[in-house]
Amino acid sequence: MYRIWYTIIGVSIINEVEWNKETLKEIASFPDEVKRDIGYLIFKLQIGERLEMPSSRPMPSLGKGCYELRSKGIDGIYRIFYFVKIKGKVLIFHAFNKKTQKTPKKEIDLGKKNLKAML
User: Fold this and answer.
1) pLDDT at 15 over 90
2) DSSP letters along 51-88, please?
3) Which domain, by its residues, includes 89?
4) Structural contact between residues 67 and 85, judged by C-beta atoms closer than 8 angstroms
5) Range 6-26 average pLDDT
6) Where residue 68 sits, what CATH number does that domain have?
């Protein structure tokens, strides 16, 4: 797991981001425009903004407090699962390139496994 803190012009950002190591590698393989979009959305989570559709939606199939970040690139649709029920933290626990309308069961199962390992 990786932890990242930021300070912007003297303003400490409250929420720490904790990454699943494999998820960080997967995001690194995403197209640049998707990484920029996702980075901006994660920054908004760090400063305490609550994201809504179309950028984020709840994922109750993963558990209470779980959401997915949504980004569309030229070559596909990308999703990142995150958890916000720990005060002062955002856990980023799974990422994938979505190829179908419905989230595949294997991605849900892997997300649950990764979240459990991080908690």
Assistant:
1) no
2) P-TTTEEE-TTT-TTEEEEEEEETTEEEEEEEE--STT
3) 2-118
4) no
5) 78
6) 3.30.2310.20
Q: How many whole angstroms from its chain centre is CA 29?
A: 15
Contacts of 22 (CB under 8 A, 6+ apart): 114
Total number of domains constituting the chain? 1
Residues in contact with 4: Cβ distance below 8 Å, sequence separation at least 6, in sequence order: 16, 17, 19
What's this model's pTM, rounded to 2 decimal places? 0.86
In this predicted model, what pLDDT tens digit does every residue of 90-116 receive, in sequence order? 999 999 999 888 999 999 999 999 999
Q: Which amino acid is at 57?
A: R
Spell out the residues 6+ positions from residue 110 whose beta carbon is closer than 8 angstroms to its own: 94
Work out the burial of residue 2: count CB atoms within 10 Å of its CB; fewer than 13 is exposed, 13-18 middle, 19 or more buried. exposed
Q: What would the two tokens of residue 88 be? A: 């002062």
Q: Give the length of the chain.
A: 119
The letter for the amino acid at 60 is P
Q: Do residues 114 and 82 touch, judged by C-beta distance below 8 A?
A: no
